[in-house]
Amino acid sequence: DEGFRVCHCNVDSIWAHKERVSHFLDSHSPFDVVAMSETKLGPLIDDDMVRLSGFNLHRADRNTRGGGVALYINDNLKVLARTGTVWTAKPGYPEYLFCEVSLPCSAPIFVAVVYRPPHAPFVSGSNFLELLSSHMEDYSTKVIIGDFNADQLSSSADCQLLRTFAEENSLSLVPHGATHHTSSSDTWLDLCYIDVEDTLLSYSKTDAPFVDGHDLIMLSINVTLTRPSAQPEFTYRDFFSVCPNMLNTFLHTCNWDSFSTPSSVESMTVCLNDNLKNAIDALVTVKVVRRSSKHKPWVTGDHSKLLAERDRLYRVFRRSRVVLLFSSIVLLETEHMTPLRAQDNYSSSNV
After folding, report:
1. Which residues pair with 142 in a beta bridge?
2. 274 and 125, same structural domain?
3. Residue 139, Cα to own-chain centre: how many angstroms?
4. Both ends of the chain: CA-CA distance in Å?
């Protein structure tokens, strides 16, 4: 039991970065909720086009040019209720999606994902904070996560407003530190709040920016979950393993009386089927295969090396602040995406 595990990233279009997210999830312990902001989804992109294996998608879209939020919730959990932004006008107000996640043998958990466009008002013309407060007040366990675009390393009015809101609603900010990086700045924009009474088991973020300068942030809180103990399996008969001589010998020992005496077609058919079934049971090996989504032919060892080199350069950049290193990181990001985009061609040619 690793607690209730949640992660978030400003993904700057799920459609563009779905395979990168999928590759990340495959290489980490299972998450219960994957939250995303700036999903950039619209009505022409249906759920199947951006589905992640093992998760049910809940989304509140703006359009394909910007904004939008989504929650991918582990399909072993149930979502009992949800409330989200209905985008009807120009962007400029916080966008959100609220869910109640139902767990076996545990009180329900309030989960919210938020995207606040830069400089959008929290109060003037928006009832976002009021709605958030009223929806979460009946839950003892809460996770509010997203890109708030309010640097918690500053003393800005937005920063002070969020600190006051958290204090008034008994929320604690998970101390991830700076989560957005450029060649000249590090800011703490991607935030996660939990109830002050919840026990934070762990928290972390990616070693290097995940998408568009944003780190992917992770946390686990102390909620007991029952997880599946094994991956789904299926079995099959390996007919290629059959020895022809052994099959011939076995069939010679079978009872074929229905064929040597006058018999009906039905009785001969039953005799043939029974003998073949007995031969299969005796000689054809049964093999067990564990299904996994981790094998992706378009993700190679070279791709993993690019990721490792990108992370190494970013660690050096954080110490030295040499702008040229940041340019090298951006170049590696471009190379990193090439094999992931190739998955579309691979999938199309192997349908």
Report:
1. 110
2. no
3. 24
4. 38
